[in-house]
Amino acid sequence: EIQLQESGPGLVKPSQSLSLTCSVTGYTITSGYDWSWIRKFPGNKMEWMGYISYSGSTNYNPSLKSRISITRDTSKNQFFLQLNSVTTEDTATYYCARGGGPHYFDYWGQGVMVTVSS
Amino acid sequence: DVQMTQSPSYLAASPGESVFISCKASKSISNYLAWYQQKPGEANKLLIYSGSTLQSGTPSRFSGSGSGTDFTLTIRNLEPEDFAVYYCQQYYEKPLTFGSGTKLEIK
């Protein structure tokens, strides 16, 4: 069974960087598919942030392009999100998911809530 | 970006009833549309892709229809476990975009 699990700090200060990890079990991220980060803001708006492909290439939402980086550690079957220069508007629940390029998302993590506050 | 307009934002219904959720794209997206179910504390569940194809494990009381710009998610004979938030998502082009969500509550 494919499972994804997000982890990372629940509180980040404004202007700092947000860093999250997605751990994948049941499927090797280099075997295929794209691996995305998606967030849901308070009020329920959902935003696709970007993905890293099975080959290691990346694609980002232009709305975030200057602040986002998605990387991976293939030895641990994990991929990562870094979002720089955060503001309170980055407060959201962050999800990792399989899919993205363009494609639907067939497996999701449960999400991790991140609050940006001083 | 393709804007996805989802309605209604809130829906109250009773078990056994049928409900319809609409999703309209700002341009034609062919049938590159997915529907998801979201419940607190659970992973989001893919229900339907390609506008009308049920994902493995999706109960047959769920159905999707439409193509181009107008799409509908239909849930017939509501079960207690169906009360959740539903989202549509287009994957015709990047950036991938979602509808604003429909919260389905028990009447």
* SSE order of chain A, one letter for each helix or strand: EEEEEEEEEEE
Biggest sheet of chain A, in brief?
A: 7 strands, mixed
Shape of chain A: globular
Our count of helices of chain A gives 0
Helix content of chain B: under 10%
Total strands of chain A? 11
Rg of chain A, please? 13 Å
Oligomer: heterodimer
Q: Which range best describes the helical content of chain A: under 10%, 10-25%, 25-40%, 40-55%, 55-70% or over 70%?
A: under 10%
Mean pLDDT score of chain B: 97
Our estimate of the beta-strand percent of chain B is over 45%
Globally, the shape of chain B reads globular
| Unreliable parts of chain A | none
What would a concise description of this structure say?
The complex is a heterodimer of chains A (118) and B (107). With 118 residues, chain A is mainly β. Helix content of chain A is 0%, strand content 50%.
Report on this model:
The complex is a heterodimer of chains A (118) and B (107). With 118 residues, chain A is mainly β. Chain A has no helices and eleven strands. By secondary structure, chain B is mainly β. Chain B contains no helices and eleven strands. In chain B, the strands form two sheets. In chain B, strands 2, 4, 5, 6, 9, 10 and 11 form a seven-stranded mixed beta sheet that branches. In chain B, strands 1-3-8-7 form a four-stranded antiparallel beta sheet, with no helix packed on it. In chain B, β4 (33-38) and β5 form a beta hairpin. The chains are: A mainly beta (118), B mainly beta (107). At the A-B interface, β5 and β10 of A face β5, β9 and β10 of B.
